[in-house]
Design a protein that fits this description.
Blueprint lengths: L2 H9 L13 H7 L17 H18 L16 H36 L3 H13 L13 H9 L7 H9 L2 H6 L11 H9 L10 H10 L8 H11 L2 E3 L16 E3 L9 E3 L2 E3 L4 H12 L2 H15 L6 H13 L4 H9 L15 H11 L8 H9 L17 H4 L2 H17 L5 H8 L6 H8 L4 H9 L2 H4 L2
Antiparallel strand pairs: 1-2, 3-4
Helix pairs in contact: 1-2, 3-4, 4-16, 7-12, 10-11, 13-14, 14-15, 19-22, 20-22, 21-22
Amino acid sequence: MSNAAIALNRFGLGARPEMAAPADPQGWLLGQFDQFDPRPAVLSGLPGGAAMTLQYRQNLAALRRVGIGGLPRQPGDPEPLKGPEAEAEANRYQQERRQAFRQAYGAQVQARLAMAISGPAPFAERLVHFWANHFAISTDKLATATMGGPLEFEAIRPGITGRFGSLLLAVVRHPGMMFYLDQAQSIGPGSLLAQAARRRNAPRQPGLNENLAREILELHTLGAGHYTQADVGGLARALTGWSIGGFVRRPLGVPAPDGEFVFQPNWHEPGSVTVAGKTYAQGGAAQAEAILNDLATHPRTAQRLAEKLARHLVADVPPPALVARMAQAYLASGGDLMALYRAVVNAPEAWAQPLAKFKTPWDWTVSVARALPKTNMPDLRLVLMLAELGQPVWRPGSPAGWPDDTARWAAPDALMRRVEVAGRLAGLAGGGDPRGLAAKLLPGTLSAATSAAIARAESPAEGTALLLVCPEFLRR
């Protein structure tokens, strides 16, 4: 298998028929960052995190009004509806909410697909998808139903070429992550607000939430087995007061624009904390910032990020020597992500195992759409197909994200679904010579057996469908 094919299909998102194979594969990959646009025109008309925060607040108010979810009334709420009127309003609201979600989610996924299919920097786009999965949220929760796109577009895309510490901070402060892991109302038990609530004997006492702190340590930085419950508690206390504007009302907190990060000093737990063996003095919002910066450049974080990226780009079980070199480059640069990318792109191991990675449904669908431009993709058909194939965008079901190994995606029933989808897509692609298409998409990769099978196909559509599910196309 040629290095050009590996660059196009493993590091990139799949070849396009009109693309020439890169003469300098490593240079082609690294040169893409000069062409990468963090905020392309396709995103300009999409509502961002601020609009989605306002929508979430309106959803909560509507739920309180119709009595869904047992949410307590807040100051300024209208009188709740009762009886048949409440039931009718609840049904109408649920239908409108589902329609609004489908429209917003569909537009976000189509924008993501458009950038992946037609963008000038497929390697950079792959890294956007990688980091979005590393910092996964799931849109099957009311608070984040339309936050998958804004988190990726606003926090992740602009940060993939900087330092990991900056990317981590941007993600943690985004309303998508705050709402998903219940951070926006985490209040220290010794904070001024909590003390005032105890004096009033308030029926609902403010509480500390450890969800975000735990996932930062386990999933985003150090990894399982390399932190303690005491570390979780320390980071959670340092994060108290980190919230989102537009989510709470005065006088409970400092006002801020919808969807923007705001530090609420009266919610913050006073005192020093210890995380990963280091003690951090009280410093308001700066206390948690210092912890995140140190976690970003911790040797365990370097090892975890290097291993995870090598698993994604090279093999399900990445070579330990490669992982060690990547981690060393990352640490030597102070957590610079470009140093991490250069280390893996320039590593001999990255080019030595042809077809080592099995494509996820997302990878496969994008590579199909890039291969068959006459299908006029992207549109809602691809959005629905991704759900049919078992990987709906931004819906992994947990903050751990989607698995990145062959065992998860190569089961017989999953392969049968791909065969069915390939037949439908090949029919949309129209005529053409599938043998010529195969040579363009898989330079130096196509086996004699696959080439013969495509040649024996009874029609161009059947030959194209065989190409899309052949072993060489299913792997990268």
